[in-house]
Amino acid sequence: MPYYRVVGEVPRKRHIQFRRPDGGLYAEELMGEEGFSSDASLLYHRHLPTAIVKAEAVTATADTRLEPNLPLSPRHFRTQALSSAGDLVSGRILLAGNADVRLSYATSDRPSELYRNSMGDECVYVQAGRVRFESTYGVIEAGPGDYVVIPTGTIHRWVPDGQVNVLAIEASGHIRPPRRYLSQYGQFLEHAPYSERDLRAPTEPLTVEGAEVPVLVRTRGGLTRLVYRDHPFDVVGWDGCLYPYAFNIDDFEPLVKRTHAPPPVHQTFEGPGFVVCSFCPRPLDFHPDSVPIPYNHHNVDSDEFMFYVGGDYSARKGSGIDVGSISLHPAGFTHGPQPGAVEAVIDAVAKGVTTTSEMAVMVDTFRPLDLGQGALSCEDPGYAWTWSR
């Protein structure tokens, strides 16, 4: 993260003796990115974070098969038809992916087991429901519209309060705010659509007692379940610039022009080989002759994966797109408003409509997205031809 935080108890200087009330030493754990040449945080544990008593390989049960998008076609997937068999980790249904990112949907009301993704950061968007995110850094209460960004290697679990629906974005590297929003020293600039005040991170330590505690670990070699001698949630304090945080889509401040602005104005995060954008309610374009709706466009270097999470997406009326839908518009295909949508919006503006209520989460990838079996199982087969009706 681009700014420094302190939570709980830490000593005056790093890497000096820090003693427990009984006189023993707290155990340091330095969590650092890019060979400790980028962001890092220092955590202080009651017990050794290295003490494991058992390790066993785990056979993956999720269907991770991916197929090329052939024949090349725009796609529409209805997540409303999907139901998970597990929790918000084990029940993830793979929709699409490539070497840079995996995009999965999950819906569950059960707590997950402790989990560590050691392949890359995750950004989990909460579409519906409320959930408690617990980690070695502390607790984040998350609800509808929250992005929860989880650094690589963070031990955590999800505890839903009833049914929760999420889109999980699993990166092969790190997910960060776009560099153009930050000063050379990491502060959000005034032109950025959000700021440090909009980010919610743990505010106090979470300590849990326990012995022989299993943690599911995902690495490039597969899945392993490590059993820790003591519960990993035993951190009394930490400081640094690396930690999980939440950002709510309602806190994104849209950037507007007199005429229609392209998707980069909606960018929220960047990852290796992809970007994440937030489409939020905003004033319609206000030039007197504007066409306040997306023009036909062809992003020649990207596949566009769009999750419709709320509001009324006027540009897609008549296509079958609804809240909970996901569209995939691949490079090699020009897409845009449905027939008649341009005229309808111009007429609506003439009658006094001044804002749009659309809400969507978009992931643009710079390598082609292959299709997961989950997406193919809920596909609308007639979507590709809706522009010709």
TrEMBL record:
Spell out the SUPFAM superfamilies in the cross-references.
Answer: RmlC-like cupins (SSF51182)
Annotated keywords: Dioxygenase, Iron, Metal-binding, Oxidoreductase
Q: What is this protein called?
A: Homogentisate 1,2-dioxygenase
Q: Name one GO cellular component term.
A: cytoplasm
Superkingdom classification of source: Bacteria
Question: What species does this protein belong to?
Answer: Nonomuraea glycinis
Tell me which Pfam families the record gives: HgmA_C, HgmA_N
Start and end of every Homogentisate 1,2-dioxygenase N-terminal domain? 23-248
What's this protein's family per the entry?
Answer: Belongs to the homogentisate dioxygenase family.
Q: Which InterPro entries match?
A: HgmA_C, HgmA_N, Homogentis_dOase, RmlC-like_jellyroll, RmlC_Cupin_sf
- Residue span, Homogentisate 1,2-dioxygenase C-terminal domain: 279-387
Residue numbers annotated as active site? 260
Any one Gene Ontology BP term: tyrosine metabolic process
- Per its Swiss-Prot or TrEMBL entry, what cofactor is needed? Fe cation
